[in-house]
Amino acid sequence: MKVIIAGAGAMGSRFGLMLHQAKNEVILVDGWPEHIDNIKKDGLKANFNGEEVVAQIPIYHQNEVASVDFSADLVILFTKAMQLDAMMKEIKNMVGTNTKVLCLLNGIGHEDVIKKYVPLSNIILGNTMWTAGLEGPGKAKLFGNGSIDLQNLGEDGRDATEEVIACLNKANLNAKYSGNILSSIYKKACVNGTMNGLCTILDSNMAGFGETDVADAIVESIVSEFAAIAKMEKADLNIEEVLTQIKSCYNRETIGLHHPSMYQDLIINNRLTEIDYINGAIVRKGKQYNIETPYCSFLTQLVHAKEQILGAK
């Protein structure tokens, strides 16, 4: 297949490399000049399960793709949520009537942006358990195994995704069809909607927050708001299962000493966060469904205040 990886950071580099190795025609599109320059000059480098590999994959800055002659069969989205609309505008000349668009972004409601550019029948929502990191511009660190759950939003459902699933599985990306991807997305969003914002505001790793006397009460209040919105969107969310998963993040012996991605974006790298597409999305949908979401609203406001205080860009 002819594949565009839109957002070629850590996860985009993983998917681009694995699809390239499976003999697909892949191009990378990103907005980080140094990352782009290094890949153009030296190829995409990766420590891939302990093996050093280099792949020569074409990469373009998103501002220059309007002139690129490439008609995609599949677009895989890995941008930051707030960059999604701009990316879709930039690549629209490479998206045809039959191009499938697979969204693997964190957060909720991205289909509302994507459907401005492609029909609902071409949109595939996914949730991935793959992980990846960047050791520097042009150099990825890829360890472990993972999987992808995905669902087409059109009436044809699974039939419309068979070719995409086959392509992903040929690249050993372990894709499978889900009858209710929103449940997986909301479950993951509950983890992000608690650990990300709270650890960022409290300047804490997950274990430090989890060991406070009030952690469970705060988490349960936030999850209850996510669950109320999920119910309105016919997403089956098992609250006890979600709470168990969140509380497992407190474990110092596993991932408890980790600082979530929002903390890394804002506190370490002074970047704007994706709070509007996690807790902020619950606030917007709460207004739509006439559901009160005070905890998500307050946490969203606190994170924005922190962004402004720190002068995040």
UniProtKB/TrEMBL annotation:
It catalyses: (R)-pantoate + NADP(+) = 2-dehydropantoate + NADPH + H(+). Pfam families: ApbA, ApbA_C. Coiled coil: none annotated. The keyword Oxidoreductase applies. The keyword Iron does not apply. GO terms for biological process: pantothenate biosynthetic process. The lineage of its organism: Bacteria, Bacillati, Bacillota, Bacilli, Lactobacillales. Residues 180-307 form the Ketopantoate reductase C-terminal domain. Keywords: NADP, Oxidoreductase, Pantothenate biosynthesis. Its EC number is 1.1.1.169. It comes from the Bacteria. One of its GO terms (cellular component) is cytoplasm. It comes from Vagococcus hydrophili. This is 2-dehydropantoate 2-reductase. One of its GO terms (molecular function) is NADP binding. Belongs to the ketopantoate reductase family. Residues 3-153 form the Ketopantoate reductase N-terminal domain. InterPro entries: 6-PGluconate_DH-like_C_sf (IPR008927), 6PGD_dom2 (IPR013328), ApbA (IPR003710), Ketopantoate_reductase (IPR050838), KPA_reductase (IPR013752), KPR_N (IPR013332), NAD(P)-bd_dom_sf (IPR036291). Catalyzes the NADPH-dependent reduction of ketopantoate into pantoic acid. Pathway: Cofactor biosynthesis; (R)-pantothenate biosynthesis; (R)-pantoate from 3-methyl-2-oxobutanoate: step 2/2.
